[in-house]
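Hi everyone,

Forwarding the result from last night's run.
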Amino acid sequence: MTQPQKAIKAKTRWLGLLIALPVIAYGAYLTVQANAPALHTRFGYARPLFGDDARAYGLIVVLLGCLPLLLLCRTTRQAALFGASLGVVLLTAIFTLAYS
């Protein structure tokens, strides 16, 4: 038999929400402005994005920002359904926007 999972504490849910909101807001900002600034990453220089590329990047950032919202699900079944549907939408967006 499996052991029942412990409930997620309220503090953890609030922290997940506090992580998700700025990331979603940044993705929405990128989508609306259609301009993503250049970045220096450990993999090298990432050029700035303009127009449709910046909108696609913003949409993907919004979808990635929804991942911490899994902590708000009350049951493991809700978390599994939300996580699976979010994963499918995220992968669809990545491949559709990258190859179109």
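The chain has a mean pLDDT of 91.

Cheers,
N.
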